[in-house]
Amino acid sequence: MGEILRVEHLRYVYGEGLPDATVALDDVSFSIEEGQFVGVIGSTGCGKSTLIGHFNGINRPTGGHVYVAGEDLWADPSQIRKFRFMVGLVFQYPEYQLFEETVYKDIAFGPRNMGLDDAEVDRRVRRAASFCGIGDDWLDKSPFDLSGGQKRRVAIAGVLAMEPRVLVLDEPAAGLDPEGRDTILGQLKEYHRQTGTTTVLVSHSMEDIAKYADRVLVLDAGKIAMYDETEKVFARAPELLALGLSVPEVTKVFLRLKEWGLEIPTDVYTIPYAVKTILAEKARREAAGGEGGGAPC
Amino acid sequence: MDEMLTARDIRFAYEEGGRLAIDGLSVQVNKGEFLAVLGANGCGKSTLAKHFNAILLPTAGKVLVEGMDTADEDRLWDIRQKVGMVFQNPDNQIVATVVEEDVAFALENLGVEPGEMRRRVDEAMELAGVYKYREKAPHKLSGGQKQRVAIAGVIAMRPDCLVLDEATAMLDPIGREKVMRTVRSLNRDHGITVVAITHYMEEAAQADRVVVMSGGKVALEGTPKEVFSQVEAVRALHLDVPQSAELCHELTAAGCPMPPDLICVDECAAALYKLLTGKEAPAHG
Fold first, then answer.
1. Which one, A9, A126, A164, B13, has least CB within 10 Å?
2. Does A177 sit within 8 Å of B239, measured CB to CB?
3. What is the pLDDT, as a whole number, of residue B93?
4. Mutating which of A182, A278, A281, A284 best tests the B interface, going by the most B Cβ atoms within 10 A?
5. Residue A50: CB partners within 8 Å, gap ≥ 6?
6. Confidence (pTM)
7. ipTM of this model?
8. Stretch(es) of chain B classified as CATH 3.40.50.300
9. Where are the beta strands (DSSP E) in A144-194?
């Protein structure tokens, strides 16, 4: 599959020319293939939100270029609106952006703005609602009568209903309990699996990134620190810690074992893989028969 | 031990005759204790938090703060001064345009004289680790810094107890860690009782005691080890256990028995070291 998003030498400065000008992005270049699920991580203030705001033209680069499906977003600024439909952005705490009288109308807002006819709008609203686990009985309710987690799913459905080619989500699970988090992220993963829509997930949670993303982009102080397949990024756990990121707890356990001198891989970031690794290491030690013989288990 | 907070068989409904958000709950928090309250969304844990300084009054039952009944209106100001609350969203808790003025806000309302106010504001900012931002505008601070400003505003009132209602939910891991470090030090070094409502199991693992709520009731209670060793019970309440506990549980299930009560990285790594090498783990440092 081809490339859907390309960022070239992107530079963005807040308040350029002013005494307190701040460089938020500095010479950032990378590309995303169509259909990938990419996680973006980095500590607060590293430029994550600034970066994704460039994907659909909310931010205009101070320098460099952003291409979506091969087209330069800013080649003709009068055409920028079309990229807003191609790249769907779900902001942090999107439930605060609901405003319509009913859930149905709120989800329909985006597709209506695209100028689609009623039948197509209806098809899209129902499809997006069903992906987000929103039953038909909710559609006539006021979004303000729903719980926080439900509202958030409505807000996400509103973006899915535009059927963008690239879906970008900024901390979609922030503030939810473990079950609410798994529900939303599971639905997004399922949407990705069924539709093949390129998905970019911004998160502070390494556990979530580890579970859902195929590739990970690590930002640090406005620059790309790493961009690679998920397991290769997690294999560099000590560097991630040095960047002020928090690695999954299970990764920390393996780092500690390594510190204590055990020959053990440290690219362990999920529980099933951790179990497999420990059992394999134990079997290897028992077969070797040395090094204390392996404690009776 | 002295009781800081006591909830005795309380019930609460947001609407008369409506669903009970709290349904027959009793809990006691001792002075100097660090209690974590866990539970899935909608289990009533934030509702409970709001009972601890009389923002909400129980529909039935009693809540006592150092023996004072929260239903006693004459004691309302004493209760609010004893128990300070920090909420989830940092942007909803800051009122002033300069950090130190925000920290002084409650003291001004209480009519504390200026010299004393200066001393208490400085001390509170030092304790919360925001002294160096004292002249900054709050909107230029990060979420974690803002939460620590909110904590400073509360501790300037010299409360005996701090109630955190998901105070770290909107923060990144570093901000979260700094807020928790501040809270732990207030608890350990300054004897402030802490009740932390949280979704983060690693935070709960650091508490003295954990209460897990479900359907407005206490479902599990005990030390973090006692609670998190019950992996299946915790999962049945739609919560996770810390990954260290989960790893030990899964290894046991895979036919390699591990102790059930290891809930932090150090303990889990030490047990695995012993399992693999047959030797005690080196003392770390």
1. A9
2. yes
3. 84
4. A278
5. A12, A14, A24, A25, A59
6. 0.80
7. 0.77
8. 3-96+157-229
9. 166-170
